[in-house]
């Protein structure tokens, strides 16, 4: 199982997963009440300040985790530049980057097993309908395959660039989907070989 926990130890690693996830939920919810760029910029600076105790390696790792977001930031920026809605575009970008950076901070400082334990406790009321362990396993698989899909896309783009001077564009989608389905099939076979999710 892939872990996104940072190898750089910080004081946040020692905090329990439940309170961290609760604070993240409250902080993310509050971002949607902020409508103008100035308070959102203050929230972004707050998240940045929370990264500083981890040191340069921790901050660089956090920036690398934000890399998949920059394409969305660029699309939103170009759209709002074209429509002339600079204020709302800036607010949207700040809200998006701040929320993802805060979520990454929690992910980097919390073991996946601890997050799954919290998720199982939250899903306990659904036990008569579906076992919480299965929901937790599905949650873990989503966390596992999101960065995996990013890696596959990057490899496909590199392979395209080595063979053609043109931009790949939409052409990488089909190979990426097939690779994701292949990974899912292999994971299902591995789970079945181990007896599945009890």
Count of spatially separate domains: 2
Largest sheet: none
Based on CA atoms alone, the radius of gyration comes out at: 19 Å
What is the typical, i.e. mean, pLDDT?
80
What labels describe this entry?
198 residues; mainly alpha; 2 domains; globular
Q: How is this structure best summarized?
A:
This protein has 198 residues and is mainly alpha-helical.
Describe the structure.
With 198 residues, the chain is an all-alpha fold. 72% of the residues lie in helices and 0% in strands.
Task: Itemize the secondary structure elements and their pairings.
Layout lengths: L16 H15 L5 H15 L3 H11 L4 H14 L2 H23 L3 H11 L9 H32 L9 H21 L5
Helix pairs in contact: 1-5, 2-5, 4-5, 6-7, 7-8
Family: Belongs to the CbiQ family.
Keywords: Membrane, Transmembrane, Transmembrane helix
Protein name: Energy-coupling factor transporter transmembrane protein EcfT
